[in-house]
Amino acid sequence: MTEYQDQTYPEPRQRSLLDTFVGAMILLFTLGVFGSVAWDAYLSTDKDKTGVRRIFAKRWNDRTLVFPIEGTDRQGRRALFDVVVLTKNYGWVRGSTTELEKDDRRLSPEEIQGEVLAPQLREGLGSARGLIAVGLASQEGEVAREEQRGGLRAIRIAQWVQDALGDSIPMWTLNLGRYVDPCAECEDTDTSWQRPFIVIAVRQADDGTHISEALADAMSGTSNLPAPSRYSAFAFAKYQR
């Protein structure tokens, strides 16, 4: 009898189970490789080669974008924020600390309450653990004056928001000051994008979190939010009427 005739082979049922097992292992390996590739692809769209992050936004309505960000304070305590920004055709009137505009049209106080602070925005902000009114100024003008302007804009936003929501939610102001990172290749005479309307909702925070430190960390290194490095100040204060 030849040698190969002495070898034993799995019965048909055993071969079926073995084939199933091998197939399952191949599938798991394939999914693992695919998942790794997909995750790398996601990260490549979220960060560029320098590590700068692009935050993906959701919408509350056709004029309001919301950017979820996360940061830690110097003790490693974590906080989650929603950065609420009006779309680019809304913003501060150049030089003003009291008026907003849509495109080139100044908004009335009634339009600010009804259009800017629309029901979707009020509902979204109304569930926050805390609110931060952000003031900032574009690159025109002397730094000290523009920092003063940014502070007054933050206070004005805090007033508008409390008029709409009441004063039951803790409120802070954040003055980012003047835009100081001009880009000759990407800017034109329109600098309105440097002075948007922004309110930040505090969603979650570990006990004892230093909110301003966690927020500075969360906003740093972002390409489509006002990162602190691109403005002249980061003045955080408790707001009281």
CATH architecture of the largest domain: 2-Layer Sandwich
Unreliable stretches (pLDDT < 50, length at least 5) are 1-9, 27-45, 184-188
Radius of gyration: 26 Å
How many domains, in number, for the residues?
A: 2
CATH top level label of the largest domain: Alpha Beta
Assembly classification: single chain
Beta content comes to 15-25%
Main β-sheet, spatial strand arrangement: 1-2-3-9-7-8-10
Compute the number of strand runs: 10
Q: Look at the structure and give the mean pLDDT.
A: 82
What string gives the helices and strands in order? Answer: HEEEEEEHHEHEEHE
The helix content is 25-40%
Number of helices: 5
CATH topology of the largest domain: 60s Ribosomal Protein L30, Chain: A
Shape descriptor: globular
Distance between the termini: 102 Å
Largest sheet: 7 strands, mixed
Question: Any key phrases for this structure?
Answer:
60s Ribosomal Protein L30, Chain: A; seven-stranded mixed β-sheet; three-stranded antiparallel β-sheet; single chain; disordered N terminus; alpha+beta; 10 strands; 241 residues
Tell me about this structure.
With 241 residues, the chain is an alpha+beta fold. It has two domains: 3-46; 58-238, 60s Ribosomal Protein L30, Chain: A (2-Layer Sandwich), CATH 3.30.1330. It has helices at 12-46, 109-116, 119-126, 143-165, 211-219, and strands at residues 58-61, 64-72, 78-86, 90-92, 100-102, 105-106, 130-137, 171-178, 198-205, 235-238. The strands form two sheets. It has a seven-stranded mixed beta sheet. The protein has a three-stranded antiparallel beta sheet with strand order 4-5-6, with no helix packed on it. Strand 2 (64-72) and strand 3 (78-86) form a beta hairpin. The protein is globular and about 45 Å long.
